[in-house]
Write a structure and sequence with these properties.
The chain has twelve helices and ten strands. With 369 residues, the protein is α+β, with helices and mostly antiparallel strands. Among the domains are: 63 residues, Ankyrin repeat-containing domain (Serine Threonine Protein Phosphatase 5, Tetratricopeptide repeat); 136 residues, Nucleoside Triphosphate Pyrophosphohydrolase (Alpha-Beta Complex), CATH 3.90.79.10. A hairpin with a 4-residue loop joins β3 and β4. The radius of gyration is 24 Å and the shape is flat. The two termini are 26 Å apart. It binds zinc ion (ZN). GO terms for molecular function: metal ion binding; NADH pyrophosphatase activity.
Length: 369
């Protein structure tokens, strides 16, 4: 799902985590002396150096990390990572002039949940209203816009795919909603039925045609509402139950393999889409398919539907227009790659992706990990 090579900073993190996973205490110490902040960093699998060292039985490395003050809470390390990048939040006064521009589109996101409901001793007047959030699409220059923001560490994503993975679950959900709906507005300025101009309605969740004669104004039409495009993403299991099929696209970072995926076509069931996509991309025939979980992916409006599928054949013949390579990986190689064994067979997709979760789900189905 990602399209960029690792940055120098990410390479350093990967090198550090690899040293911890291998039990190389001298390399761990050397890297920390150059970059102390590495100590609580997580890699693509979401694991810190302490977790990897402890998992692989390298107690001397774990003791070293603890003596240097590593954070033992996984949640805390995630918070540290998030300091690199947070969503821009503006007050109404900061952007109210932008809202007057005809090119600006604003959509309603929701009302923030009240975490601590007011106690009975508080008067209605003393309780402030929870914030109401909107997302704004504007043509103003990003650098100029950033100056309006009063919060620190805000950035606009340069690579939406990759930067989305750096956000917390809550913020990623906000981006998924906002980006999908705003992308729909930017693509559907004109009525798909008659070609007339349209205008946003219902807080940005509908567009209505300005031509009073238009058929789209009678009944419910899917051209009037934001679209969601279903994509099946599947982990194909070998008939022997002990290997899984993973593929890589040319745009993946070096060494990364992931689940096969593709759009559902009109008239297809999810099971048929899984079988067709796997056969088209890899030549492998698939029998039973079962749904596992799903993930909204706002690039621009996909719903990734995660499935496990059982192969009925094993010969691989890749469609080179779709993927570069596909291979069967034995379960032990997959486990070693997830937990960064000495020689991982491949790089896992990032922890936040459904591909990662599907592979992990399969490993956990028949093991005590
Ligand atoms: Zn129309």
């Amino acid at each position: 799902m990602t399209s960029l090579q690792l940055s120098a900073k990410e390479e350093m993190v990967e090198k550090f985590l690899d040293a911890a996973a291998r039990g190389d205490v001298s390399q761990v110490s050397t890297l920390l002396s150059h970059a102390p902040s590495l100590i609580n960093k997580t890699g693509f699998s979401g694991w810190t150096a302490l977790m990897l060292a402890a998992r692989n039985g390298h107690h001397h490395v774990a003791e070293k990390l603890l003596s240097l003050g590593t954070i033992t809470s996984h949640l805390s390390s995630l918070h540290l990572q998030q300091e690199d990048f947070t969503l821009c939040r503006f007050r109404y006064e900061d952007v109210k002039d932008l809202l007057q521009k005809p090119s600006t589109v604003m959509i309603f996101l929701g009302i923030e949940k009240v975490k601590n409901p007011p106690s009975s001793s508080q008067t209605v007047e003393s309780v402030s209203e929870p914030p109401v959030w909107f997302a704004v699409n504007t043509d103003e220059d990003a650098a100029v816009l950033l100056k309006r923001c009063r919060e620190k560490n805000c950035l606009f994503p340069r690579s939406p795919n990759r930067d989305l993975l750096k956000l917390s679950e809550e913020e990623a959900g906000i981006v998924a909603q906002a980006r999908s709906v705003l992308a729909w507005h930017s693509r559907y300025s004109f009525c798909p039925t008659c070609g007339s101009s349209t205008r946003p309605e219902e807080g940005g969740y509908k567009r209505s045609c300005l031509n009073s004669e238009c058929r789209s104004l009678q009944g419910v039409h899917n051209t009037c509402y934001p679209r969601v495009d279903p994509v099946v993403i599947m982990l194909v299991i070998h008939p022997d139950g002990n290997q899984c099929l993973l593929g890589r696209k040319k745009v993946f970072p070096a060494g990364m393999f992931s689940c096969l995926a593709g759009f559902v076509e009109p008239g297809e069931t999810l099971e048929e889409a899984v079988r067709r996509e796997v056969e088209e991309e890899s030549g492998v025939k698939v029998g039973p398919v079962c749904y596992v979980s799903c993930q909204p992916w706002p690039m621009p409006s996909n719903l990734m539907i995660g499935c496990l599928a059982v192969a009925m054949s094993t010969d691989i013949k890749v469609d080179e227009n779709e993927i570069e390579e596909a291979r069967w990986f034995p379960r032990q190689q997959v486990i070693d790659s997830l937990f960064r064994g000495a020689r991982p067979a491949f790089v896992f997709p990032p922890r936040q992706t459904i591909a990662h979760q599907l592979i992990r789900h399969w490993i956990c189905m028949n093991s005590n990990l």
